[in-house]
Every structure is written in C-alpha cells, then in structure tokens.
Amino acid sequence: MAKTFTFHDHKPKTLSLQDAVIQGFSGKYKSIPPKFFYDERGSALFAAICEQPEYYPPDIEQSMLSRLAEEIAQLTGTGRVIFEPGAGAATKIQLLLPALKPLAYVPMDISCEFLKAAAGALVEEFPWLPVHAACVDFTHSLPIPETAPAGPRLAFFPGSSIGNFTPREAREFLALVSDRIGRDGMLLIGVDTKKDPAILHAAYNDAAGITAAFNLNLLQRMRNEAGVECAPENFEHRAFYNRELGRIEMHLVSRCRQTLRLNGYCFELGEGETVHTENSYKYAPEEFIALSADAGLDLRHYWLGEQGLFALYLLQSR
Ligand code: AVJ
Known about the structure:
alpha/beta, eight-stranded mixed sheet, four-stranded mixed sheet, 14 strands, globular, binds N,N,N-trimethyl-histidine
C-alpha cells in the first residue's frame, strides 16, 4: 500500500529559555512556563513520572481509551481527520486507530525532530493511515496542513494537558479548537478530576523523587543552556494542592538567600522564596462541561475512570 507521510515545519518561534528567565524573574513573583520542562532529559523524566505508582492519570486514561474505543467510534463515526496538539510520541492515538479508522492523522508538536521520528514510526506501523505531521507551538496557533484531506474533523487532546492553562486560557484554547474542527467537528479530551487532596499530593510528590527531579531539572537547563549562574542544590521541589483555585502548583523553593546572575542581570531570591513552575488545574465534570459550553463545544458524552479519578469528554462544535 502506498504510504502517505508529509511533514510541515511551521518553525514555532518560542521564547528562548534565557528570555523566559529574564521575563519570569523580573517581577516580584517569579515563574517559568512549564513548557521549558521538556528538554531531552525532562521528557525522559516525564516518561518516568508516568511509570510511578502514585501518578495515576496515564494508566487510567489508557485503559479507558482501550476499553471505550468502540463506544467512542459509535459516537464519532469512522473516517474523520484526527488532529492532536502536543502529540509527542503519538502512543495514545494508537489505542483508537483500529476503531476510529481515520481518513488521516495530523500529529502536532513543538519538538520537531521528536515529532518527525514518532510520525515516521507510526506510518510504518499503520501503513493504511495518511499522516501529515505539523511542527507548531499549539499555545500560539493550530494550523492544519493543506495536504490533509477534507473531511469531518476530530481533535484529540489527552493527558489533561489542558490543566496547564488557566481556566480562561483553557476556554480560549477550546474556542480555537472549536474553530479548527468546524461545525459538527468533535473533540475527545482527557481531563483530570477534583479529588481527595491526599491522592493529588502523592501524585506530584512521588516517593522515588522523580517529580522532584523533573522540577529541579529546570535549574540544570537554566545553567547549562541559558547560562544562568545558579546552584541547583540551593533549591528544593514543592508541589501542593491549592484548594481555592482547584490546582496543583509546583514551585522551586530557594533554600537560602541567593543571587542568580545572567548577562549582567542579578535576580535576588530570599530564603523560602519560590519560583512557580507549573499549574495543573483539576475540573469536576460539571465545571469542565460548563467551560466547554462557553467555548462553543457541547457535550455528547463523558466517561469517568475508576473511582472518578480521571475523565474523558466527547464534545461537539456548535
Ligand atoms: C503533562 C501537564 C498533564 O500536570 O499532571 C506531571 C505534567 N507535572 N507531574 C500534569 C506533570 C508533574 C502533567 N501534564
């Protein structure tokens, strides 16, 4: 069978880590966007987090996708053009391909080389599936390659990646997705639920210390890649559930009073002062359904995983 594989480099112009440090450390309240976690070591550490017994989302979501594939296909029909922002290794979509039989698959990711390799491997594994990969920063835009066939669309956004956005940003992103899938287009999205804070706390403070290493890796990157003079051992990992805001927050906590230097800039940190590195919002089903409706997406169906620990939503553009 003739394989179809096209690659589109939209050259996502992202802020460099150096600029992100200068921007994020200049205010009173210090922060770095979570996308900087994912260099090669960070991506490997994230994969290791997904293997930790305390980090429940990947297992539950994957077993839901396998178990529900036929049921989902009944609701979406087959023959859609599926696009996936932040597809990464494109592993989860493989659980759905036999049931959904898409017309084409459009994986999108910011990491061009990684995406090219993953998409290439997918074409070998599923030779009947036309793949049109696009290297983009989905926080900025979602261009669908012109080489992708026309047809009803389905967006796929698993892993509760939506949780990294604030609710307002999430609504804007969902509205953009709604625009891209067009009228009657659908979105299948995996979202982490609100639950006992002890379960959440454990998920982001695994006993093996992998999440801590993932968080602290940002300092290595700042030092090695952005030329920031800092001592990673002067920081510690902190993750906690902020009940009021319904989110896990991750921070790097300064163990002492210290000064970080970069290109003539000096950033002072007090003892106990933190650098905010990630938010991971959790949504009760009624909250997420209302947020989606605000973005022009109506609920077709939703499923809860074991003990309500994770949710999958199938939404339709109005
Ligand atoms: C990839 C954003 C869904 O928020 O749970 C895991 C990232 N951070 N452990 C999440 C993460 C710390 C993850 N997301």
